[in-house]
Amino acid sequence: MDPITLAILASGAAFILLVMRVPIAFCIGIVACVGLLLRFSWAPGTELDLVRGLRPTLSIIGTTAYGFVSNYPLSMIPMFIALGHVAFAAGITTDLFDVLNRRLRFLPGGLAVASVTGCSGFSAITGSSVACAAAMGRIAVPEMVRHGYDKRLATGAVAAGGTLGSLIPPSLLFVIYSIFTEQSVRELFVAGIIPGILSLFGFLLTIFIWCWLKPSAAPRLAQQDTAKTSAARDLISLWPLFLLLAIVIAGIGFGFFTPTEAAAVSLMSATLIGLARKKLDWRNLTDAAKITVQQTAMIFAVAMAAKIFATFVSLTRIVPTVLDLIQGVDPSIFIVMGAIVLLYLVIGMFLDSIGILVLTLPFTVPLVESMGMDLIWFGVIVIKLLEIGLITPPIGLNAFVIKSVAPKDISLGAVFQGCAAFLALDFVVLGLLLAFPVLSLMLL
């Protein structure tokens, strides 16, 4: 079989299986293994001989899987996942919301502002958008609904705020991107800081505009008695959060820690803080370990399958063929990036973030690299597009997570309606990042 035809058929089969909600690891892995077997068993001009192709196929599967698992930087993934669960159990990731809830509740949209800002602090510790949406959704959405907030604003703010975990370091999506593109994890983390802050301020601006246009969406609340807890004391109470932020963001940004070292130090620090606060016990630690193992195994299985798929794509030579065709047309960078953005926006409506990454990077990265674009900047653009996909119907994962933890009378349609307003600012930030790459690269 012609290798190009085989690659097209395999990519189509993988996409169809993903749309059918087949687990990503099985989908990509099976398609890649079958594709490799056919590539070696059915060379152009020969008859199909599965026995001939079995040995090289098994060899590639074994060496690729081992080469991936033995990659040292991967050790940061389980540690950052565990950090998120331990920090949440210790109350570190919710302290910021509690303080802002007391201090800002009297402002129009104050609870929503506290929720989104709390999500940013949560994201800076956990690196997971879904974990952030699930945890903050259980706390913030019922609180806003109880005080008469529009259900669309309440759910949309937390769903959108949860996406900040995709950009604000330590983002697990950045880790996966770095492994597949062989880019520096530290540089990707640093490049995500300003775009993450821009996204945060964009969401806050959305809340202010919403409350200005429709004051009834966020009733003014009486300020709580804060005489017993001064602003200075509230600020001091956030020292565990500031410590972890310093380790993860400042420590990595200024080169004091490698990302792996920062993950280890911050996990140990969060554990000790939780034990000292008497909020962590054996049960909490055991539950965090179980969930960490489950999530790590899922991510590793997906990534190993994707590595095998990328090897298969490379052997078919479809990428150089496509690049030659594109270079023959000689499109401008604007057209190429426009097509890539459109591709990710469309696929983001149907697939989850990890599935999109592993399916598209073998094709888009060589194209971008051949046109001289910076892969760090491109990584920020891709992660921002994946962030948008988390709240885009019909498969916006954060919206479904919020629906699952929100009060039962809130419909999925109301959640997506709330997300729509925040999507508008997301596209503004995306446009700024595309037009001004310096926003992503100035801290490097």
UniProtKB/TrEMBL annotation:
It comes from the Bacteria. Residues 13-437 form the TRAP C4-dicarboxylate transport system permease DctM subunit domain. NCBIfam families: dctM. It is a multi-pass membrane protein. It is found in: Cell inner membrane. The keyword Signal does not apply. The gene is dctM_18. InterPro entries: DctM, TRAP_DctM. Part of the tripartite ATP-independent periplasmic (TRAP) transport system. Belongs to the TRAP transporter large permease family. This is TRAP transporter large permease protein. Keywords: Cell inner membrane, Cell membrane, Membrane, Plasmid, Transmembrane, Transmembrane helix, Transport.
